[in-house]
Amino acid sequence: MNKENKLIPGLPSGFEDRWNKKLLLKKRLLRVIEKNFIKYGFDPLETPSFEISSNIGSFLAEDENNPMSDVFTFDDGEKNITLRYDLSSPLARFVAQNNQELPSIYKRYAIQNVFRNEKSGNARYREFTQADCDIVGNVNPAQANAELCNLISNTLVDCGLKKDQFTINVSNRKIVQGLIEDLKIENEKQIKVMRAIDKLDKPGFGLKGVEELLKKERKDKSGAITKGANLSDEQASKILNFLKIKDLEELKENFKNPITQEGIKELEELFKVLNFGNCSDQVKTNFTIVRGLDYYDGFCVETNLNFKAKNIKGKEVDIGSICSGGQYNKLISRFKGVDIPGTGVSIGVDRLLFAMMQLNQIEVDTQNPVIVCVMDEKYLKNYYEILDNLRKNNINSEIFLDSKKNLGKQLTYANKRECPVAVICGENEFKNNKITLKYLLGTKGENNQITFPKENLINEIKKFI
Fold first, then answer.
1. Are the CB atoms for 249 and 157 separated by under 8 Å?
2. Is the pLDDT confidence value at 64 over 60?
3. Within 13 Å, how many C-alpha atoms sit on residue 303's CB side?
4. pTM for the complete prediction?
5. Contact 434, 453 (CB under 8 A)
6. In whole angstroms, what is the distance from residue 168 CA to residue 149 CA?
């Protein structure tokens, strides 16, 4: 192949290879998360990567002229199909399709990749893993949502975070809905108002950025312009004053709209149930949380880290919420024509991984194998007997696969693999029925080699791994 025609290896923006410690840590997190979902009584569900576009709907895009701009959509003949952008929309389709076979209260968890055609960076990916659990059916909302808050807290602690390293922020979308009703904001502007409020705590926004989005437009540092909700100065001012309120009692006293009062009451009931458990100190109110997806209509939750992470350039960044969700009473009714309420949360596994890699608080078992070196090809049968014995005793192990390489090159390979131990046996060992082990992770200059009777292999090797 001509030099000019050679391919340049690389990935598209927003996608990432994961390997070695990072992938092992991710797998560990996934095991912990799934174990907790099962412990809390959730059943597994797996849905396809693609859904029919009209079924999955469009809840992400902020550009009303191009509602599918933030997803990957493809022509599939008569119908378009879309790569799932979350796990809630496929759940709604599944429940509608299989409602008669499901229990009246359906608790499911799903751990799968999702895809979003959006700007990447600072732990924002275009393909990433979500771990969702949802409760669908007629339940006491306070109990269901308290259960989700408890699950978030216990799961993140089990993943390796300390309790003071994260906060579970909760609100209720009805609180803002009541304010919007009082301000007589037109229907077509309401989702823009919600999304503007939801960006208050996002990097680079604050009250000034929200005000711009509530009014005409906002221009970011790159020069990109986002059209605003075109509210009047008075409407925008009242929303901004609302965003400064932190206390539930102050909110209750100053905002009398019935929908707002209903949202406040639901929060009070949530905290009453939370006080029955041991995670209530982790949960705080934050009335600016309304969630950007417009299928939420009640309880909302966002879990934020209480520390800054760093990007690849070493700059401190806010990676956003690592576990979010809320209540949706209308999502399934798009299919059934009847309201089947649901509530759920989603852990952003790759965001959590991004933070955990930087904290370096937990040890990851690398599970690197013991290597059986091949000193002499005529003893190949004996080397495989040693290998078989190691594997029968659940010891990760491999044999060097090129008997023509000398011992030095075999050990160089083993060191690059970070193998903990090498089995080095030549003619003398086999003649005397002995085995030699070399500890490869020991301090240089120390005697890291030992020879012993063959029958002691498993006991001796376990001292090093």
1. no
2. no
3. 30
4. 0.87
5. yes
6. 7
